[in-house]
C-alpha cells in the first residue's frame, strides 16, 4: 500500500509538470503567432466587449486568449494594451464578487497610465478604472480618477468610438455615485458634440445616457433623454423600433403613462418590418409591460413566456432575465409554484455583482413579495367555514347586483333627463352665440364702412386743400413774377428816357451845324458823337438782353450762359469757369430756359457788384426729373442780412419755387459764397 501511494504521488507530480510545460509551450507558440497578427487590437477590443456583458461566463478559450495578449503586451511594452488586459481581469473578478483581486488588477492598470503617450487613451482608461474602483467599493480613488478624465479638458476631440467609450465609462461611474448633476453635465456636452456629428452618433449617446440615468435611479430623466430623439430624423427602422420599445419600458418604470398608447401603436407598426433577436426581446418586454399596465395579464404573460423561451434557447440576457422576473411576479399570487420555479432559475443567474444592478434590484424586490405572499391567513381556515362563507358571499353578491341594477336604471334615467336639459340649454346658448356673433359682425362692418367713408372724405378734403394751396402758391408766384416784370419794364423805360434820349440829344447837337453861323460840324464834335453812339449801342444791347437774350434762342441755354462767362472773363477782373453735365436744352420748356438764364445772370451780377471775387465756378447738371445749379465764388461773402433779402435774391428764390425747387445759400464772411438752386423738370 505504501508503494502504491508513492507511485500515485510521483505520477501526479509528473502530470502537473507536464501540464505546466504544455501550457508554457502553447503560450510561446501563440505569442509568436500573435506577433505576426495585425489585428491584435481588434482581438483585445473583442475580449473587452465580451467581458462587459452582464451574464458573461468565463471559458478556457477566453482565458487562453487573454493570456496570449498579456504576454505579447509585456514583451512589446504595449502599455495601453496591457492596461486593458488588467481592466478585463478586474471586470472578471467583480463578476465573481472578488473585490480584493479586482482592486489588485485595477492598481496594476493605474500604474501603467504614466507610460501611455496617447492622451485620449489615458482619459478613456481613467474613466474605465474610475468605474471599476467605485464598483469595488473604493469611491475615493474612483472619484479622483473620474475628475482626471473630465470631458472639459483633453477629451475635447471629434466624435469617435474611443471618445464614446470614455463618456460611457464616466456615465457609469457617475451613476454608481448617484451624482445626477455630473451625469447631466456630461450628457449636455456629449449630446452637443454628437448632434454636430449626425443622427447616428446622437442616437448612440442618448441611449447610453438613458441606461446610466436608469442605473442612477432617475427613471424620469432616462425617459426624457430617449423622448428627445422622437423629433429627430435619420434613424434606421431598427433603431426606431428599439427607441419606442425603450420608451414604453422607461415610461412604465417612471410612471409616465400619458403617451404610452401612442408609443405602443407605433411599435406595433414596426414589429412586422424589423426582425432580430435582441430587438424582438425588447419589443416583447415593452409589450408585456404595456399589457400589464392595462390589466390584460394574459397577454402580458404570453409576452413574458416568449422571453423565457429565448432564455432557454440562447442563454441569459438582460432583457429575457427581466421578462422572467416579471413573469414570476405575475405568478406570485395566482400560481406560487410557478413563481418558485422561475425564482430558482433566477437565483442561479443573478449572483455576485449582478445583484447590485437594476435587474438584480428588481429580482430582490419581486422575491420579497413572493415570500410575503406565502403567509396568507385565509389558507388556514377550515373547509366548513369556507363553504358557509362562500354561500353567504354569493347571496350578498346577488342582492348587491339587484340593488345595483335598480340604482343603475334610476341613474340612467336621471342622466338621460339631465342630458336632455343640457342639450336644450346648449341649443339656446348656440342660438344666443350666433345672434351675438351676427350683431358683432354687423357692428364691425358698420364701423369699418364708416371709417372707410371718413378716410375717403378726409383724403378728398386733404387733396382739395392741397390743390387750393398749390393754386394760391402759384398765384402768388405769378403775381411776384408779374411785379418783377413790371419793375423790369419800368427800369427799361427809365433807361430809355434818361439815358437813351439824353445820349441821342447830345449826339444830334454835335452832328448838326450851327444854324446861326452856318458852318458844318468839326472833327471833334464828330468824335464825341461817335463815342456817344457807341455807348448808346451797348446800352441798347444790354436792354435787349434784359428783354429777351437773342443768344438763348439762337445758340441754346449752354452757349448763352457761356457767352456771359466769356464776356466777364474778357474784362480780366474775374475768372469764371463753367461745367454743364447732361444738359439738353431741347428737353427744357422755353420759359424754364429763360428763368434759368435770368437766375444765372443774377448770380453773375451779384458777384460783380458785391462779392469782389477773383474766381468763380458755375455747374449746371440735368437729371431725369431735376436740374441743379451750383455757383461758387471766393469773394467776401454775403455779409449783411439786407443783401440776403435783396430784390435779386428774392426774385431768384421765387423763380426756383415756381418750378417746385429751392434756393440754398451758404456764405462765409470773407470766405466766399455758394448758391445751390434745385429745380424740378
Explain the layout of strands and helices.
Blueprint: H1 2-36, H2 40-51, H3 60-76, H4 79-95, H5 99-112, H6 119-135, H7 139-148, H8 161-176, H9 180-197, H10 199-215, H11 219-227, H12 237-254, H13 260-271, H14 277-294, H15 297-314, H16 318-334, H17 336-349, H18 358-373, H19 383-511, H20 523-547, H21 550-555, H22 557-571, E1 575-581, H23 590-611, E2 615-622, E3 626-633, H24 641-644, H25 647-658, E4 662-668, E5 672-680
Parallel strand pairs: 1-2
Antiparallel strand pairs: 2-3, 3-5, 4-5
Helix pairs in contact: 1-3, 2-4, 3-4, 4-5, 4-6, 5-6, 6-7, 6-8, 8-9, 8-10, 9-10, 10-11, 11-12, 12-13, 12-14, 13-14, 14-15, 14-16, 15-16, 16-17, 16-18, 17-18, 19-20, 19-25, 22-23, 23-25
- Series of secondary-structure elements, N-terminal to C-terminal: HHHHHHHHHHHHHHHHHHHHHHEHEEHHEE
CATH class of one domain: Alpha Beta
Major sheet summary line = 5 strands, mixed
Superfamily (CATH H level) name of one domain: Histidine kinase-like ATPase, C-terminal domain
Record the strand order, biggest sheet: 1-2-3-5-4
Per the principal axes of the C-alpha atoms, what is the gross shape? elongated
The number of E-state strands comes to 5
The share of residues in helices is over 70%
User: What's the mean pLDDT score?
Assistant: 79
Query: Given the helix and strand composition, which structural class is it?
Result: mainly alpha
Low-confidence stretches: 1-5, 27-38, 151-155, 374-386
Protein name: histidine kinase
GO molecular function: protein histidine kinase activity
Pfam families: HATPase_c
Keywords: Kinase, Membrane, Transferase, Transmembrane, Transmembrane helix, Two-component regulatory system
Amino acid at each position: 500500500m505504501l508503494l502504491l501511494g508513492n507511485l500515485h504521488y510521483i505520477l501526479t507530480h509528473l502530470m502537473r509538470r507536464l501540464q505546466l510545460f504544455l501550457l508554457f509551450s502553447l503560450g510561446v507558440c501563440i505569442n509568436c503567432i500573435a506577433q505576426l497578427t495585425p489585428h491584435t487590437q481588434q482581438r483585445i477590443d473583442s475580449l473587452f466587449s465580451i467581458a462587459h456583458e452582464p451574464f458573461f461566463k468565463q471559458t478556457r478559450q477566453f482565458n487562453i486568449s487573454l493570456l496570449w495578449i498579456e504576454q505579447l503586451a509585456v514583451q512589446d511594452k504595449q502599455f495601453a494594451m496591457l492596461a486593458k488586459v488588467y481592466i478585463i481581469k478586474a471586470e472578471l473578478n467583480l463578476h465573481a464578487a472578488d473585490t480584493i483581486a479586482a482592486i489588485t488588477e485595477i492598481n496594476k492598470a493605474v500604474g501603467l497610465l504614466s507610460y501611455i503617450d496617447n492622451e485620449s487613451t489615458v482619459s478613456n482608461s481613467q474613466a474605465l478604472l474610475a468605474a471599476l474602483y467605485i464598483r469595488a467599493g473604493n469611491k475615493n480613488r474612483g472619484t479622483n480618477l473620474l475628475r482626471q478624465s473630465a470631458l472639459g479638458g483633453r477629451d475635447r476631440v471629434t466624435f469617435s468610438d474611443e471618445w464614446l467609450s470614455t463618456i460611457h465609462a464616466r456615465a457609469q461611474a457617475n451613476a454608481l455615485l448617484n451624482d445626477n448633476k455630473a451625469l447631466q453635465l456630461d450628457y449636455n456636452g456629449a449630446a452637443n458634440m454628437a448632434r454636430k456629428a449626425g443622427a447616428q452618433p446622437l442616437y448612440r449617446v442618448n441611449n447610453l445616457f438613458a441606461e446610466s440615468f436608469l442605473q442612477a435611479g432617475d427613471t424620469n430623466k432616462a425617459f426624457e433623454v430617449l423622448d428627445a430623439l422622437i423629433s429627430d430624423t435619420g434613424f434606421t427602422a431598427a433603431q426606431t423600433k428599439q427607441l419606442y420599445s425603450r420608451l414604453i419600458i422607461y415610461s412604465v418604470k417612471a410612471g409616465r403613462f400619458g403617451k404610452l398608447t401612442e408609443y405602443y401603436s407605433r411599435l406595433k407598426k414596426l414589429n412586422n418590418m424589423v426582425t432580430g433577436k435582441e430587438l424582438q426581446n425588447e419589443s416583447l418586454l415593452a409589450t408585456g409591460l404595456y399589457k400589464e399596465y392595462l390589466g390584460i395579464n394574459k397577454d402580458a404573460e404570453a409576452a413574458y413566456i416568449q422571453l423565457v423561451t429565448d432564455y432557454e434557447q440562447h442563454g441569459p440576457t438582460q432583457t429575457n432575465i427581466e421578462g422572467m422576473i416579471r413573469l414570476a411576479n405575475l405568478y406570485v399570487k395566482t400560481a406560487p409554484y410557478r413563481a418558485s420555479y422561475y425564482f430558482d432559475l433566477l437565483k442561479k443567474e443573478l449572483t455576485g455583482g449582478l445583484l447590485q444592478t437594476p435587474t438584480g434590484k428588481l429580482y430582490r424586490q419581486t422575491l420579497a413579495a413572493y415570500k410575503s405572499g406565502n403567509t396568507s391567513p385565509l389558507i388556514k381556515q377550515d373547509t366548513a367555514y369556507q363553504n358557509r362563507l362562500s354561500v353567504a358571499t354569493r347571496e350578498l353578491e346577488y342582492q348587491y347586483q339587484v340593488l345595483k341594477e335598480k340604482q343603475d336604471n334610476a341613474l340612467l334615467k336621471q342622466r338621460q333627463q339631465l342630458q336632455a336639459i343640457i342639450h336644450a340649454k346648449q341649443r339656446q346658448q348656440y342660438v344666443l352665440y350666433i345672434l351675438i356673433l351676427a350683431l358683432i359682425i354687423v357692428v364691425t362692418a358698420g364701423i369699418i364702412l364708416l371709417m372707410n367713408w371718413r378716410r375717403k372724405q378726409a383724403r378728398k378734403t386733404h387733396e382739395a386743400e392741397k390743390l387750393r394751396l398749390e393754386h394760391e402758391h402759384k398765384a402768388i408766384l405769378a403775381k411776384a413774377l408779374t411785379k418783377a416784370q413790371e419793375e423790369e419794364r419800368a427800369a427799361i423805360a427809365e433807361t430809355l428816357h434818361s439815358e437813351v434820349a439824353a445820349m441821342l440829344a447830345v449826339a444830334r447837337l454835335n452832328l448838326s451845324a450851327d444854324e446861326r453861323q452856318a458852318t458844318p460840324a468839326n472833327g471833334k464834335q464828330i468824335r464825341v458823337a461817335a463815342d456817344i453812339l457807341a455807348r448808346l449801342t451797348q446800352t441798347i444791347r444790354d436792354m435787349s438782353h434784359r428783354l429777351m437774350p437773342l443768344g438763348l434762342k439762337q445758340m441754346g441755354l449752354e452757349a448763352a450762359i457761356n457767352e456771359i462767362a466769356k464776356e466777364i472773363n474778357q474784362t480780366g477782373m474775374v475768372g469764371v469757369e463753367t461745367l454743364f453735365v447732361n444738359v439738353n436744352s431741347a428737353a427744357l420748356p422755353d420759359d424754364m430756359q429763360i428763368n434759368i438764364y435770368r437766375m444765372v445772370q443774377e448770380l453773375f451780377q451779384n458777384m460783380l457788384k458785391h462779392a469782389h471775387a477773383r474766381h468763380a465756378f458755375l455747374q449746371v447738371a440735368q437729371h431725369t426729373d431735376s436740374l441743379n445749379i451750383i455757383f461758387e465764388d471766393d469773394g467776401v461773402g454775403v455779409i449783411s442780412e439786407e443783401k440776403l433779402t435783396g430784390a435779386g435774391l428774392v426774385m431768384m428764390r421765387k423763380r426756383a419755387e415756381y418750378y417746385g425747387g429751392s434756393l440754398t445759400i451758404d456764405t462765409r464772411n470773407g470766405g466766399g459764397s455758394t448758391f445751390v438752386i434745385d429745380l424740378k423738370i
